[in-house]
Amino acid sequence: MAKIVVPKKACAVNPLKMSQPIGSALAFMGVKNCMPLFHGSQGCTSFGLVLFVRHFKEAIPLQTTAMSEVATVLGGYENVEQAIVTIVDRQKPSIIGISSTGVTETKGDDVEGFIKLIREKRPELDHVALVYVSTPDFKDAFQDGWAKTVTKLIETLVQPTAPDAERIPNRVTLLPGAHLTPGDIDEIREILEAFGLEMLALPDLSGSLDGHIPDDFTPTTLGGIGLEDIADLGRSVHTIAVGEQMRDAAVALAAKTGVPFTLFDRLTGLEVNDQLISLCTQISGKTAPLKVRRWRGQLVDAMLDGHFHFGGKRLAIGAEPDLLWALSQWATEMGAHITAAVTTTQSPVLEKIPSEEVWISDLEDLEKLAQGCDLLVTHSHGRQAADRLKIPFYRIGIPMFDRLGAAHQTIVGYRGTRDLIFELANMFMADVHEPNPDTWAIPKEQGHVGTAAATAH
């Protein structure tokens, strides 16, 4: 059992942590025709906007209530009302997702009350869904904001369903954690479709932030799950949640609709994907298709080929709790050792991390703990630490602004795990120092001793 360490530092140095509002906004971006709205200052919103643009290399819909110092002190009702009216008038969204920030949470704005007053005062806004999530950035972290938002979407938009209601037998709901990329969601969809199953994901970043070219410009989200599908989630036959962070959302959906759920704490590795395939066979009533069996065989072969390069390697990982758990458990199964593990927030999975200690801290501490490691794994802000440590660096998580294709990085399923093995094994192989004439020759003194010993023998 790992020991949880929370250092008492005066400030974070080279932060690993991403804030709750950022995670909340990203979750809203997986809903069709949505406009995420930060209730806070313009600076809070512009930071998140720039971060997402650099990571996804796409146009990002994100608005602000533009709270000034005076408005913050007096209360933000007028700012919230004006922001909603302006967005509806100019951008025609189906839903506005409102996330609080530190400044308005410190003031104590009652945004739920604001929304009730706006509904009473402006009936012309009745056709637009308004969902508010409390996400102060002075507590918790990125995956917490995401998880709270998904839970609130379920509580607000999903229609209650009787436990004995008729279900769509081949439809499954996916509740993906914040650590899953659009590519990961697409991979899970392809696995389910191989069994003849239809998947609805809440949220669905694979339809909105997968980097496609739209037919027409839209100021809101380009794709994602529609409001009608969210309301109808109670007709799915089963719910699959990925990541411990999604437990509350899965429980909320089950309580409201009676749909049973299965929670996978990760989908990176052989055994957990065998469990997913077993679940798919139970839901669909079909045996695993030939192509899925072939994917599994390729993963087993990749594990056989790759374990020579992972055995005994020391890894330092900095990531959100669920991503840290997925990577550390998989790497351990491949024969590596987790020498340094740093994360952002509390989670039930932290004590299970295969490391002596798990630090809830920053990249400065990760760099100190990573001395002598063979690989550093974290997001792009860890690149300078890897340079100073002179060890290979694998980028994963948000933000990843100095490489292309972040949205399509896939580490789930048989194929995602297979490709992850290849990527890291190739980095280990590339870092091996080849012998040269100065290093492969036997020193003369050793040669004389060996010759004498051989002669004496």
Count, helices: 18
Poorly predicted runs are 449-457
Strand residue percentage: 15-25%
Which superfamily, in CATH terms, is the homologous superfamily of the largest domain?
A: Nitrogenase molybdenum iron protein domain
The number of strands is: 14
| General form | globular
Just name the CATH architecture of the largest domain.
3-Layer(aba) Sandwich
**CATH-defined fold name of the largest domain:** Rossmann fold
Query: Can you tell me the number of structural domains?
Result: 3
Largest sheet: 6 strands, parallel
N-C termini distance? 54 Å
CATH structural class of the largest domain: Alpha Beta
> Multimeric state of these chains?
single chain
**Order of strands in the sheet with most strands:** 1-12-11-10-13-14
Mean pLDDT: 94
> Given the helix and strand composition, which structural class is it?
alpha/beta
Query: What value does the Rg take, in angstroms?
Result: 25 Å
Chart the SSEs and their pairings.
Layout: E1 3-5, H1 20-28, E2 34-39, H2 42-56, E3 63-64, H3 69-74, H4 77-91, E4 95-100, H5 102-107, H6 111-121, E5 129-133, H7 142-157, E6 168-176, H8 182-193, E7 198-201, H9 227-231, E8 236-242, H10 247-257, E9 261-264, H11 270-284, H12 290-310, E10 314-318, H13 321-333, E11 337-343, E12 357-360, H14 363-369, E13 375-378, H15 383-389, E14 393-395, H16 413-430, H17 437-440, H18 444-456
Parallel strand pairs: 1-12, 2-3, 2-4, 4-5, 6-7, 6-8, 8-9, 10-11, 10-13, 11-12, 13-14
Helix pairs in contact: 1-7, 7-10, 12-16
